[in-house]
Amino acid sequence: MHRLIIMPIYPRLSGDKVFDSDRAMLDRTAEALAETFDLAGSVQGTWGNWPYLSDLRPGQPAFVLRRTREGLTLDTQRWDISAGGIGGSARCWPTTRILSVSLPWWRRLAERPAQRCLIPVTACTAPLPPQGGRDGRSAWFTLADEPVFTIAGLWRGTSDARCFAMLGCPVEGPLTVQPVVIAPGDRVRWLDAEWDAAASLLAPMDAERICIGLSETPLSDVGAPLYAGGGPNRPPAGMNLAR
Predict the structure, then answer these.
(1) In whole angstroms, what is the distance from residue 112 CA to residue 108 CA?
(2) What are the start-end ranges of the E strands in the chain?
(3) What is the mean pLDDT of the chain?
(4) How far apart are CA 176 and CA 193, in angstroms?
(5) DSSP 8-state class, residue 33
(6) Domain-located, residue 25
(7) Which strand ranges, in their side-by-side order, compose the sheet holding 55-56?
(8) Which of 20, 90, 222, 227 could form a disulfide linkage to 212, CB 3.0–4.6 angstroms apart?
(9) Residue 223 contacts residue 10 (beta carbons within 8 Å)
(10) What pLDDT score does 87 carry?
């Protein structure tokens, strides 16, 4: 049985730092995602206040695929996994992207299949190298061969919500970090396999698959990546949500 779980997502405290360069988009409704991931016919109930979540930002809700006792579940979670408490420290800080699972608290989460998840998106940002004294820049990208793709993540419960962070790989080239994209044929392995088998999926994609900007331009043909939130790369104000 597959189902969708809704849990209240509370806003971050004003003093918390989140990373504006981390963004994603999803132009599918929850109902459409249930069909895409073969959840149709067994999803029960309502999607509450979030029939769709199109503009994904740190500290805000997003759709997440994870395993539960009932099977594959479409969940809502907050994009920001707090590292405080995982490693035995009382200090908490927001983490939206995990670049290494070598640290003990991330490794312990990653080794448990129940704490792995997949984040479905249609576009995502990735960091760019500093240029002209400017840091913190990012570029939108899509995948040429997958209109909806899934990014590997880890999640945990807190006192007020379930939270997740995306996994990323440092790379050389126009993008300094790539989110770890899990191909359709590898999704079961990421969610269910023992750690040694799942860890082999934490690798960058072939650059030929990446289209920089909200366009069909392959990464290999782009001389200067377009910045997230600027010029022709800016997400449309209104999105035509596919059902």
Answers:
(1) 7
(2) 3-5, 24-25, 55-56, 61-68, 71-79, 81-82, 94-95, 97-98, 116-121, 123-127, 138-143, 149-157, 162-170, 177-179, 181-182, 210-212
(3) 76
(4) 28
(5) H
(6) yes
(7) 55-56, 24-25, 123-127, 138-143, 210-212
(8) 222
(9) no
(10) 47
Residue whose C-alpha is closest to residue 214's, from 226, 224, 223, 222: 226
Alpha-carbon separation of residue 171 from 52, 100, 206, 207 (angstroms) = 32, 13, 11, 11
Domain count, the chain: 1
- Does 207 reside within a domain? no
Give CA–CA dist 173/176, Å, rounded.
Answer: 6
- For residue 216, tell me if it sits in a domain: no
Quickly tell me which residue has 């800016």 as its tokens.
Answer: 234
**Is 226 within the bounds of a domain?**
no
Locus of tokens 């132009």: 27
Q: Which two tokens stand for residue 173?
A: 């080239």
**112-162 pLDDT, tens digit each:** 999 999 999 999 998 887 776 666 678 899 998 999 999 999 999 887 788
Structure tokens of 235? 């997400």
Domain span at 51: 3-130+148-200
Which among 69, 188, 176, 70 has a CA at the least distance from the CA of 118? Answer: 188
Question: For 205-243, what is each residue's pLDDT tens digit?
Answer: 888 888 888 755 555 444 444 445 433 333 333 333 333
Question: Tell me, what CATH number does 61's domain have?
Answer: 3.90.1680.10
